[in-house]
Amino acid sequence: xxxxxxxxxxxxxxxxxxxxxxxxxxxxxxxxxxxxxxxxxxxxxxxxxxxxxxxxxxxxxxxxxxxxxxxxxxxxxxxxxxxxxxxxxxxxxxxxxxxxxxxxxxxxxxxxxxxxxxxxxxxxxxxxxxxxxxxxxxxxxxxxxxxxxxxxxxxxxxxxxxxxxx
Amino acid sequence: xxxxxxxxxxxxxxxxxxxxxxxxxxxxxxxxxxxxxxxxxxxxxxxxxxxxxxxxxxxxxxxxxxxxxxxxxxxxxxxxxxxxxxxxxxxxxxxxxxxxxxxxxxxxxxxxxxxxxxxxxxxxxxxxxxxxxxxxxxxxxxxxxxxxxxxxxxxxxxxxxxxxxxxxxxxxxxxxxxxxxxxxxxxxxxxxxxxxxxxxxxxxxxxxxxxxxxxxxxxxxxxxxxxxxxxxxxxxxxxxxxxxxxxxxxxxxxxxxxxxxxxxxxxxxxxxxxxxxxxxxxxxxxxxxxxxxxxxxxxxxxxxxxxxxxxxxxxxxxxxxxxxxxxxxxxxxxxxxxxxxxxxxxxxxxxxxxxxxxxxxxxxxxxxxxxxxxxxxxxxxxxxxxxxxxxxxxxxxxxxxxxxxxxxxxxxxxxxxxxxxxxxxxxxxxxxxxxxxxxxxxxxxxx
Lengths: 166, 447
Known about the structure:
The complex is a heterodimer. Chain A is of the alpha+beta class. Chain A is built from five helices and twelve strands. Chain A is globular, with a radius of gyration of 17 Å. Chain B has helices spanning 11-47, 53-75, 85-101, 103-109, 116-130, 132-139, 146-155, 157-249, 260-279, 292-302, 304-310, 330-347, 383-391, 399-417; strands at residues 288-291, 313-318, 325-328, 352-361, 368-376, 421-426, 432-439. In chain B, the strands form two sheets. A five-stranded mixed sheet of chain B has the order 2-4-5-7-6, covered by helices on one side. A two-stranded antiparallel sheet of chain B has the order 1-3. The interface between A and B is medium-sized, with 18 and 20 residues.
């Protein structure tokens, strides 16, 4: 009886939601205001795990590459829903330690996506991969400002969810 | 001496004023388009600020080179394959080279220092591509290539430092040029705005001048209308006096040979009075509920003299379905029918006249409409005469016809006031036919 009660408390604590373990190389680690983990207070993902999320695309020009490209990847909202996120902002860290803070509204209102593929091919490090935040610049000219160029972070390796209290 | 009104037309001034107005409008349009164009250019220049990231990426290249060297230095103490870590660090470095060579940043850097920055970048890129073989060997765990790789990276320091310096200088020059361009555009916008405001002020002056002219014309028009109404009222009083005098001096209750000229004059005076009252907006209708047949017979009786002397026969056909008593302004209806009969008898010299009376429903609002059709077999009218009658019934030239024309003119106005319609058609030597339509209603049964 006591064991069953402890198990119930364990489930209700919200700290024990499980996530499958990555089988390949970890390319993204998520931490912060999330309730689902598969590592020490964080959720690690390999490319295969990220590819199982609903795929979304953005076709656009951008200042860092020549010509128009189709970027395919996942919506950060789908990923955060899976991780039971309660944060309102995300802090991304790139492989070169560059950091950018992005409000979730950029993904819900401005159509930004987390791209893992460019023109159908996985994005290598030299192609600004493995993950890049890309905005639909061609579809919304309001996004063509420094604020959103600065948030278009590439070579992402970490993502931390947090809330800003006013 | 006639005093010339200040707003009286001066054709040559008005012509030049119109030209000036047109020129001002074109000038304002050009100024507006130019301002839009310059502000649009300013927006483009502003968007080019993205190129400022060339310095950022250049510094990132320098940092990444140091990081790579630092990583390689750390490797000297380790042994065995590096599990892809060396390639990973190498790719991070090379990705900075790629960023500096492609996109808008690449285009901008290619213009710095007359191409010197681009040549340096190509040298750095070529050297880093060449060391990829060393990276492969180190990745496989062969550390013999490590020293050579670190040494070659150290030798790139000079080129990378110069590249950073050139990029910074080029970028500063670029920003300065952009600021100059922006300032130039702002100056142009400033000048155009002043020109625009001057043009707008002149245009406002023209508009105010035109408004005051229109006000003057409106005032003059009002005065003329008042004078006209005053004149019409005077005419009305004069005619009423004449009519009263005629009634006092002549027995005009029945038409006969002795009083025919007086009766004719009285009718003309009454017609003129009605026209004057209509023009003076002092005319009102007086609808009454009475028997239609009685009034029709009264109109016909007025022309007994003509029927007898001209041997004219007349048929009055009334639709049995027509209500016996209807509400209508009978006085003015009789005036209209009288004028139409007079036209058939005197103007057309008809021998036989048919009057058909019926009623129908209006297509517009479904109200009841009295239809009086008067057809004669007289002289009729040629097409030019017919057209003249349609356009202006008063423009006849003969004195005998003037009275009739006056009555027809009044008939048209009365029909219009009564909300009806009057149409006609004529054929030369084959008579005329009139269709008179007047709205009416039936009296309430209780009344």
